[in-house]
Each structure stands twice: as structure tokens, then as C-alpha cells.
Amino acid sequence: MQKVFGRPKGLTEVAFSFCPGCTHGIIMRLVGEVLEELEIIEDTIGVSPVGCAGFCQDFFSCDFVGAAHGRAQAVGTGIKRALPDRIVFTYQGDGDIAAIGTQHAIHTAARGEKITSIMVNNAIYGMTGGQMAPTTLEGMKTSTSPYGRDLVINGYPLDLPKTIATLDGVKYVASVSVDSPKNILQAKKAIKKAFQVQQAGLGFALVSVLSTCPTNWGLSPVDSLKWLRENMMPVYEMGELKVAEEVKNL
Amino acid sequence: MSNRVLMKGNEIIGEAAIRAGCKLFFGYPITPSTEIIEYLAKNLPKAGGTVLQAEDEIGAINMCYGAACTGTRVMTASSSPGISLKQEGISYCAAAELPVVLVNVNRTGPGLGGLGPTQSDYFQSTKGGGHGDYRLIVLAPSKAQELYDFTLEAFDLAEKYRNPVLILTDGFLGQMMEPVELKEKPTSPEVDKSWVVDGARGREKRIIASYSLTNEIGEANNLRWEAKFNGIKEKEQRWEEFYADDAEYLLVSYGTTGRISKSVVLNARKKGIKLGLIRPITLWPFPEKAFIPYKNKIKGIVTVELNTGQMIEDVKLAMDCCVPIYLYRRQGGMLPTETEILEFLEKQFKLSTEEV
What we know:
The complex is a heterodimer of chains A (250) and B (356).
Chain A: H1 24-37, E1 44-48, H2 56-59, E2 63-66, H3 72-82, E3 87-93, H4 94-100, H5 102-110, E4 116-121, E5 124-125, E6 131-132, H6 151-154, H7 160-164, E7 170-177, H8 181-199, E8 204-210, H9 214-217, H10 221-232, E9 239-243, H11 245-248
Parallel strand pairs in A: 1-2, 1-3, 3-4, 4-8, 7-8
Antiparallel strand pairs in A: 5-6, 7-9
Chain B: E1 4-8, H1 9-19, E2 24-27, H2 34-43, E3 50-53, H3 57-69, E4 74-78, H4 80-95, E5 101-106, H5 122-126, E6 137-139, H6 144-161, E7 165-170, H7 171-175, E8 177-181, E9 207-208, H8 215-235, E10 239-242, E11 249-252, H9 255-270, E12 275-280, E13 282-284, E14 300-305, H10 311-319, E15 325-329, H11 338-348
Parallel strand pairs in B: 2-3, 2-4, 4-5, 5-7, 6-7, 11-12, 11-14, 14-15
Antiparallel strand pairs in B: 1-8, 6-13, 10-12
């Protein structure tokens, strides 16, 4: 019998440990597929963050380095500068890359560091149990904004990809979602392109993927997808936010 | 062939790093350490390496972490407030057992402090510094030649033990010009590199991380690190003795005050006071072995420090407090004169020089 569907070679056999309905698994699968399709598994070193995304070090089949909270891109910079011919990527949550690691997010991009960053934005701190993130939406209730995010007290949600797209060293930025089959296909195209940018040695590439957190949002998996579409997609600018000239020819 | 040159302390560290095969330097400018990054920015590229000025100290130490994961020789240098910022990353380097060479050109503190010579970071350097239970190998040079020699060796030590090594110096040593023999580096011993991440080509994937949510694994890790630290304690204690053999009194002092203390010993001997010096070279492991022969032999000790009395705690432990041990200190960037140290010793131990 012919096997028509299986795990991509970019993923190990370790079973995902995510909550039901969490879309981390879809996003990791897409990255795993891209690693396989570009035949770069053996050339790639991934950097994992702190948080739910940190489990990725066990799920991807390439070498991995575990970074401190927020430091993944600085760690990735060190690896890439040591081994310029290898592929280096970070897989980080929104709290990791857009709050505690913002200085690295800005400067890794500004330097045009030849690494790829995948940002998973679920508007909340997942692993610590549903606290406010830099991406938490206005009015959104979390355990540290129990009355809803108040813009006067907590400020506005940060659309990091939009900011990063303004920097010269950045060659490719996309903001995608995995809420529907169509969007999953688009997300994969963006992730693949972000790795191709690095393969071509062009500069920094970032893909932000909107993700659900049914457990901490207090919604069912299906309602979470609906909530993401209705609430996050209008706030976060979607699509390819920056495609440098040289990337268009890839 | 002699290769003796006159160089500034901080530049000597940079030159030694290049000769040690350091290929990457990540740093952030801060006085009085800045000449290290400046020297390397100019000279490391000529040796096929790269200097990257990071967005901040936290970025720099984490870049070191990443580079060290690949088995590449890497260094960072800073001064006290910058070293404080790096502590998170240093803890991670220790946990991931990464060979990173660190330099702290100590400036005064707490806070922003000033630039004068100080030893205010002794505790921070030797007792951990960052979170968790780890140790750094800490080398304390007291002259230009040691800045060179210890920097060369730091890279070998870091690789041998897979542990960060800190060179602790200060603005006095860093800014001073002194002759130095740029000795050829002896060949580094072969070290196991079977742990590095460089792409899983034809092998199983590797993970370098310090994360463990299983208490049993956590304890096993701590026991493994503890065994390593105990091995270092056993094998790597270093110190210099100066007129200590027949001494009735000892000065204990390292780095900048270690060299001043040598003159104090010579002055005391001229006056007939049997004074000697133990100069710790490794601050961790603290050279407790150095004190064993003197436990029931000497009448007292003065530690000379540029802080409120930090190393004196280790001296008291090493001596089991079996003789009076006093502190002579200056702070805030001030240095003691030989005369004031000797006067203090004479006063504490009621050494009337007229008797001699």
C-alpha cells in the first residue's frame, strides 16, 4: 500500500505536546516540510526560545540550540557568524521576539543578519498561563489584564513585522495565518521564501504567523480560529509586508 | 627570538586573543575596557576573524553563546555594569557548558561607578554572578605579561573544561603600558568536539540547551556540574608566593594590589619584618592549598583589597580563622601606597620597628 501522507523529514518522530486546537503543530509542520523540500535539514541549525515554542527543539530533525528568553536571534547571529554556510533559523513566540527580545528583533533585522525568523503570534503568553503579551489586543482579557487591555495603562499592541519591514537590512517580511487550508498554503509559501532568502545570502527574513491559544483564550479550537479571523486579522497587517527587489527574482 | 614590545594592557588582551585563535568577538563599548574591542576591530579581521559590535551587552554574550555552540573560539569583554548585564547569558553558557572567554576590566561600583582601579567584582566573579549554582574559572593577572599569558591560556582552559573562563582585571592594568613578550602560543591540546552543533550531516541531531522540567534530570545535571567544578578545584588552583617560606606575617592580595604588595614585602624585609605574600592567580578556584603550610606557622594575615573586604572571606575559610586576619582596603578607584599598607600591618600586629 502506498503511503500518501506522513510526517515530513524535517520533523522527528516525537509527538507534539501542544494543547488541542493550538496551531503551533501546523506551523512546525510547515517549517518541517520546507526544510525537507529545500533539502537543508543537515545544513540547518535551529534556535528555540522560551515558552511553548521552545518545545520545537525536540520536534525538528535538525541540530538545535536552546536560547534564553528573547535571545534566540542573538544566539542565531553567533551561530551564523561562526558558520556562514549553514542555515540558521529562530522559532519564537510573540512574547519572546516582541517583548523581552525586542532589541535583538530590531538589530538582527537592521544588520541584515542572514538568518530566518519565524514568529508565532497568539496574542498571549501561553506557557506561563495566559498573561498579557505585547500583541494582546485592546480590551482582551488575560490574567495580567483581567479587566481587558487598557490602552491608557498598557499601551497599544505591537505589530512587530510592520516595524521590521521598514528596516533596510530586511529582505522579506510576511504576516500570515494558518486558520484555513488556503491560508496554510500561503503561510507555507512565505516560510519557504524566507528560507530561500537566506539560501541566496540576501539578508534577514521574518515570517509572522497568527496562531490560536484555545486554552488561554478560553475558547474551543473552532471558536478560536473564528476569533483569530475576526479580531487579530484586522489589527495585524497581513500579507507580504516587504519583498526586496532581489527576492522577487527568487 | 625575542618578541618584546611595549603595549597597553587592554591591547595585550586583544593581541593574545588573536594569537589564541579567537575567531569571533562580540562586544559593546564601555570604559575602561573599550580598547579591547577597538584593537580587535582593527586586527582580528586581518587574522580571518570577525568583530561584531552588538546592540547591547546582552546581545553580545548571547552571540558568544551561539558561536561557542559551534566549537568556534569566541570572546567578549566589558566592564562591571556591562558584565552585570551579561550575567543572564553567562549563566546559560555555564549551564550549556560552553567554552566562552570573558574579560571584565573592573570599574568601581555599585551603580555606574567610576573608572579607577578596583576589585569590587570579586564576589560577582567568584561566587556565581548570574542565577543558578555555577562557577567560572577566574584568572587574575597582575602585570602585562600575565594579561598576555592568561588570555592565551583562557581559551584552552575553557575548552578543556567546557566552562566559561573570566579574566578579571581593572582599569589600572588595562590602561597601563608595560613591556610584554609576545610568546608563541603552544599548540592547544586536542579536545573533544563531539558535542558541537554544526548541522547534522550524516549523524544524529544534537541539541544544546539548559532546559529541564524533570527534577531527576535536573539533579543529575547539577551533580555532573558539581563533579566538574570539584575537578577544577582540585587541579587548577594557582598562586604565587613571594618571601612566604620563612614569613611570620602574610599579605594576601591579587591583581593590581598584588603587585603593590610585593613592594610592601620588600620594604618590610628591609625593616626586619618577616613579611611574605600569597598572590592568588586563580580567584576561583580559590587557592586554598596555598594556605595549608602556613596554618600553624604564621602569626597573622592582612588582605589588601580594593573593596569592602570580599576575598578576605575566602582567606579566612582557607586558614580556618586560626590566626588574626585583617583587611586593608581602599575603594572607589583609589590605590593604597606601600607605606600605608605597611603602617597598617605594623599597627595591627604591634610591630614596633624600634625593636629590630
